[in-house]
Amino acid sequence: MKIHSSLTKLRIDRIFKVIDDLVYHGCSVVNDECGITEIIIRPVLHSESDIVGYKSSLFVTSANYTSLMLDEITVRGYDEVVGIGNVSVIDVAKQLSFLSKKKLVIIPCILSNDSFCTNRVTAQNTRSWSAAYPDRVIIDLPLILETPKHINSLGIGEFIGLYSSYMDYCVSYNEPIVSRIISFISDSYNQLVGNNWSNNMDKLRLLAACLIFKCLIMRFSDNHQIGCGIDHSLAKALETMYDIPHGFAVFWGCAISMALFPHWSNPEFSLSTLRKASSTLGHPIGFAADHLVTNLESIIDLAREIRPLEISCINGLSNNQISKAKRILWDTLS
Ligand SMILES: [Zn+2]
Predict the structure, then answer these.
(1) CA of 248 to the centre of ligand 1 (A)
(2) Residues 41, 209: contact at Cβ < 8 Å?
(3) CA of 47 relative to ligand 1 center, distance in Å
(4) pLDDT tens-digit profile of 41-57?
(5) How far is the CA of 273 from the centre of ligand 1 (A)?
(6) Strands, DSSP E only, in 75-183?
(7) Per-residue pLDDT averaged across 187-211, rounded?
(8) Which CATH superfamily, name and number, covers 149-333?
(9) Out of 122, 135, 200, 220, which residue is the most buried by the measure of CB atoms under 10 Å away?
(10) Given this model, what pLDDT does residue 49 score?
């Protein structure tokens, strides 16, 4: 079934141009039909004017949202909302910007998640809705370096889910698989986890660029499922069943997808590639292959239930495919 083909060659070229700009010059401007986003990755912020493009800004640094904040934007005549912090703080800033129609600047303190560059707000891991896209994203590497290594490493999980989502999207929507996208994902992943994950500026810069890449693919294709699809459905099921962090759940969502659809593997990227890096993301509850194998049917049922309307390969799975995936998961991960 062909619905649309919005990720054109021109758009893919533009996304890679943004990522090249970010990696080589530290700064890029994204300009699409949705508006303009300026993204800056820099080692040091020089002055307050680097952070804020406008004279008066409401700084959001806490996750406690009150309607008074919205009133304050109007009464004091702020020009923009600046969200500095973790995911929940950024979510508050996104909602305030959306409701007040003021510009949005986001300065994330952690890279465990892609929320700093999306227009989505999530509550309790399952429900999410649209808010504002940021007008500027500033990745201040020294600030992110203050976050412990194991928390930033969760961003690798959030990024790698893109691999299975993209494959699922192409198959489900009958779109051609662009090998440049697949190579970028597998090469970057191997660089991030190669020689063990370290929380240094080079790795954080690459991780930030990878998460931005994922967000741009979703934004430019105008279909969230291309980057947050099968992996996120399975991840949300895992998050509901076990108390595990989002990036970790997405990592395992991608691993399950690779076991269910082994032909999505290639010499550069497969379930074994993921296995090598699983320790990088840690095992917070002793989470391992036996959990996935024992409960695979329930995980898949719940994933379908969470996103019933999504067109995905997960909907047409046979019992045979599921039993085969259990064997693959057990053989590769245990
Ligand atoms: Zn996510």
Answers:
(1) 10
(2) yes
(3) 32
(4) 665 444 444 444 444 66
(5) 21
(6) 80-85, 103-108, 120-123, 127-130, 136-140
(7) 88
(8) Dehydroquinate synthase-like - alpha domain (1.20.1090.10)
(9) 220
(10) 45
Q: What's the 250 CA to ligand 1 centre distance in angstroms?
A: 7
**pLDDT reported for residue 70:** 78
Tens-digit pLDDT profile for residues 268-286: 899 988 887 777 776 555 5
- Ligand 1 centroid–CA 120 distance in Å is 10
- The CATH architecture annotation of domain 34-145 reads 3-Layer(aba) Sandwich (3.40)
42's enclosing H/E stretch is strand 35-42
**Main-chain phi, psi angles of 73, to 5 degrees:** -60, -45
> Domain map of the chain by residue range?
34-145, 149-333
pTM of the model: 0.88
- Please state, rounded to an integer, the average pLDDT across all residues of the chain: 84
Instruction: Tokens 């060659």: give the residue.
Output: 9
Question: Looking up tokens 């991030």, which residue turns up?
Answer: 192
Give me ligand 1 centre to Cα 228, in Å: 7
Please give the distance, rounded to the nearest whole angstrom, from the Cα atom of residue 266 to the centre of ligand 1: 24
